[in-house]
Write a structure and sequence with these properties.
The protein has 116 residues and is of the alpha+beta class. The protein has helices at 14-24, 29-37, 44-61; strands at 2-10, 73-82, 86-91, 97-102, 105-113. The strands form two sheets. It has a three-stranded antiparallel beta sheet with strand order 1-5-2. Helix 2 (29-37) packs antiparallel against helix 3 (44-61). The chain is elongated.
Length: 116
Amino acid sequence: MEAFAVTKYVRMSPFKVRRVAELIRGKDVDAAISILHFTPKAAAIPLEKTLRSAAANLSNVYEGASKIEPDEIFIKEVRVDEGPTMKRFRAASMGRAMRIRRRTSHIKIVVATEEF
């Protein structure tokens, strides 16, 4: 059994989010949540919210099935894609305008139970 959660348009560069996503890839959900909770990076907050949502989706989708233990759930896939880039301009020297790119991210986390 598996379920997923998607968070779109996170106002953070995908490069920064991927650095934190590497810490939790393939781990148990409980271990991943504790890792993200104590990681001093801003990208840990949207990743933790998405992970909690994916775990809740798994328990809600398969409500009729037997009770799912939290230690049986693991992260099957973590994907961080690039979202749309907002273009802004800032004053530069000699009367010029320099382009600022505000990057966004789309986060998708797939969780699954260990099938034996």
